[in-house]
Each structure stands twice: as C-alpha cells, then as structure tokens.
Amino acid sequence: MRKLLAISLGLVMLSLSANAWANNILSMKQRSELIDKITVERFNSVLPQIMEREGIDMWVLMSREYNEDPVLKTMLPSTWISARRHTMLVIYNPGNGQPLERLAVARYAVGSLFKKAWDKEVQPDQWEALKHIIEARNPAKIAINTSDSFALADGMTSTEHDKFMAVLPEALKSRVVSGERLSIGWLETRSDLEMQYYPVLTQIGHSLIATAFSNEVITPNVTTTDDVVWWLRDQTRALGLTNWFHPTVSIQRKDSEVFDQITAFSKRPGENIIRPGDLIHVDFGITYLRLNTDQQQHAYVLKPGEKDAPASLKEALKSGNQLQDILTGNFKVGRTGNTILSMSRQQAIEQGITPAIYTHPLGFHGHAAGPTIGMWDAQEGVPVQGDYPVFAQTAYSIELNAASFIKEWNKEIRIMLEEDAFFDGQSVTYLDGRQTEFHLIHSDENQ
Predict the structure, then answer these.
(1) Average pLDDT over residues 38-65
(2) What are phi and psi of 341, to 5 degrees?
(3) How far apart are CA 395 and CA 429, in angstroms?
(4) DSSP SS3 for 362
(5) Cα dihedral sign for 391, 392, 393, 397?
(6) Is the pLDDT of residue 10 over 70?
(7) Cβ-based neighbour number of residue 330 at 10 Å
C-alpha cells in the first residue's frame, strides 16, 4: 500500500491551477464506472476481512427510499441516488475463503452488486422472504446497524428494528448483535483503488485554496471574506464537484479582539474586508468519487514594503507543524484516540507548545467513522468514540491548532491547520503534503 500511495502521489504532483483542473476531473460516466469498480473491490477485499475480524457471518441492512442508512448508501450502485421502495440487503460470509454472498431482498436487483433474492409473486410478504433467507443460512451472528454512540452505525430505524425482531423465530433472535464495529470498519477502511485517487482530491482542494488565497481572487482593502467563501463555492461547482460543508474564511489581525474558542468553533465569522497585515484562515472541503477532503490553511496579506510574513507569524506556523509531527508520530495500530490525544498533548506541552487537537477520520463522510482524537471542547478525551482503536488502511483529517503570542500584535493567535493523511499501519503520510509556508497576498504597493 505504501508503494502504491507513493506512485499515486507522484502521478498527481503536477502543479495545476484551479482552472486547469477542469480538464482533469472525470466525466460523470467515468466517475460512475470508477465508483462501481471501487465498490466491487471493497466487497471483495475490504469487507471479508472486516467480517472475519469482528466475527460476523451475516449482515442485514435496510433502508426505505429517501431515509437511507448511511452505511447502505455507500453500498449502492453509482447510478442509484437513493434506496428504492424498501431495500433490504443481506451479506453472508459462508467461510472457508469463499466469496461473500450479496443478496437484495427487494423488488429489484441492486445493480450488479446485489442479486435479486425476492420474488413478490411467489412470496408477497417481504419480511417473510427475508426470514426464509436468514433461516436457510443459519448464521451464528446476525449484525444489524444499531449503535448508541456512533451515529453512522445507527442506520436501522426503530420501525425496521421492531418489525425485524418480530419476524425472526426465537432461535435466531438471540443471535442478533449490533453491527457497530462492522459498520465502522467498512466505512473507515480504504481500499487500494481508493488510495490511487484520494491524493487527487486533496490536490484539487489545495489548488483551489492556493488560488483563493492569491491576488487572482483577493484585492486588499476591497475583497471581503464572504467574497472568498462564495468564490470557493462557485469554483467547486464549476469543476463539477460539491462541498460537504459551507467554507469559512476568517481573519486574525493586530487589534483588541481576543481569540475565543467557543465563538471560533460554533459561530460563523462575519463578513470582513481583507486588509494588509491580516492573517487569513480558510476551512474548506470537497466531495468527489464518494470521498471527502477537509483542509485548513493560512495566508498573510503583505503590508506595503513587506516581502514576507513577519518572523513571529512564521515561528507560529512552525509550532503548528511541530504539533502535527508530534500527533502523527503517535499513531499506532491498537492505540485508542484518547491515548493518542493524551500522549500528544503531554509531549507538545513539554516542548513549549500550547496545543488543541481535534483530529477525526475521513472518507465517505467528512467527519467520518473511526476513532475521535479529541474535540475542541474535549481536550481531556472523548468517551466511547475516543476509546475506539486505530486500524491500518485508514484516512484522517489531521486537525489541530497551536497558540502563539505575537509580540508585535500584543496578543495570542491560533495557527489552525488541517491536512488530509493516510495511516498504513506503520506511519502517517500526507496525501498532498501540508502547509509549511504562508500563502502571500500582495498589496498594490508591493506587487
């Protein structure tokens, strides 16, 4: 996997402007074909290992149209925008290295991914048909998507749960278990083919940020933070992509405003004119090929006569990079998110850094399934979600901030960084590098 990732990184390291990306993004038909190819690979190579690991031999998922289980939605063909009618899926592992059996207890086959296994004309009752399929295979453990703590693993509705348990014979009811860890494992584990393309997403995001944080988009004393936000939204759409959250652009500058953690993370920054001497921050993410990015970077607006950002701000950025290194150096298979958080914070503080770490998994969702490594308002650890262990072949948004006192401004600022990375079980690799220097925006006097 590491060799494969290195090759794919090499293929996408070309420096392309945001506009140039339009010719390098797949057509909708090409995307559809690739998504289906990835999904088949995941069923063949990812899911069997997860089912074996969790000791599950049957997984039952179901969704009614427009009320999709978030896990089931990742298993649908690319041409299915939603479930149809009441879609019931059964995935059965017969064991002994045999391929998984994928059945659709539904009116339709689910593309070529799930074979149609219900004939309504023969058995009018869909629930009875599901029961007969389960009984015929006599599984030892039947996983369903219910979870108290992980929303993405809690996709079975209460109505479906009640009907499902009611139709099962008593002998099978005791075999029903939560598919929580199975759901998380499916969602968080990346396949080889996905990792050939994931670096492309991150470079598209970086390219858009680089253009947004340049004089191509920003004219100091004229352009507002909202202008940049809407440029990012428009350019994402122009490329045929979408955003999974509305971007934010905020400013730290030499004034009396004090950084407030609650306001920074719970309230969108108001519109503000970008001026020379400002430190600008963006939070931005795109969706492509059913995968997501989540990125934060900074730009500095040069004042007249300046050729570079002030040394104090550059040192603050180095502290942010140092915190990233501490955090990623503590990734180890089997360690929980809370353990990694505690180790990293202690090491950072010992090295004179004031840290805040709120790193999360990344993949089918922006805030994806897997171990939570801190939250901005839970630096002591996160119960349950933080107790989940790290596994190999997983992607993360390395999100954190480091506080630094800027003498020239007589105030503390936060370098808030977020970069997308992959953990192969041995080390963490950034999918398209990370920010180690500020984007620089020129004023009229120093262009």
Answers:
(1) 95
(2) -60, -50
(3) 9
(4) strand
(5) positive
(6) no
(7) 18
Label residue 5 by pLDDT band (50, 70, 90).
very low
DSSP state of 372: -
Strands 411-423, 394-406: parallel, antiparallel or unpaired by DSSP? antiparallel
H helical segments located in 267-409: 311-329, 337-350
Is the Cα dihedral 332, 333, 339, 345 positive or negative?
positive
The pLDDT value given to residue 67: 87
Instruction: Tell me the helix, strand and coil percentages in the chain, rounded to 5.
Output: 35, 25, 40
The DSSP 8-state label assigned to residue 191 in this structure reads: P
Q: Is residue 11 pLDDT above 60, yes or no?
A: no
Residue 16: what residue type?
A: L
Residue 246: which of 261, 218, 225 has the closest Cα? 225
Residue 166 carries which DSSP code? H
> Residue with structure tokens 């953690």?
261
Q: What does the block give as tokens for 161?
A: 């749960």
Q: Is 329 exposed, middle or buried (0-12, 13-18, 19+ CB in 10 A)?
A: middle
**Rounded distance, CA 438 to CA 309, Å?**
7
What pLDDT does residue 145 have? Answer: 97
Residue tagged 């014979």 (tokens): 169
Cβ pair 304, 446 in contact under 8 A: yes
Q: Is 122 exposed, middle or buried (CB count within 10 Å of its CB: 0-12, 13-18, 19+)?
A: exposed
Instruction: Say whether 131 sits in a helix, a strand or coil.
Output: helix
Element (DSSP H or E) covering residue 162: helix 158-167
- Angstrom CA distances, 326 to 118, 308, 329, stand at 54, 27, 5
Coil/strand/helix, residue 308: coil
Residues 366-402 have pLDDT tens digits of 999 999 999 999 999 999 999 999 999 999 999 999 9
Q: Tokens 């990742």: give the residue.
A: 74
Q: How confident is the model at residue 3 (pLDDT cuts 50, 70, 90)?
A: very low
The predicted model gives 223-236 an average pLDDT of 96
Q: What are residue 214's phi and psi, to 5 degrees? A: -145, 170
**Alpha-carbon gap, residue 384 to 366, rounded angstroms:** 19
The pLDDT of residue 85 is 84
Write the pLDDT tens digit of every residue in 76-126. Answer: 988 887 777 899 999 999 988 899 999 999 888 888 898 998 888 889 899
Instruction: Centre a 10 Å sphere on the Cβ of residue 100 and count the other Cβ atoms it contains.
Output: 15
Give the type of residue at 358: Y
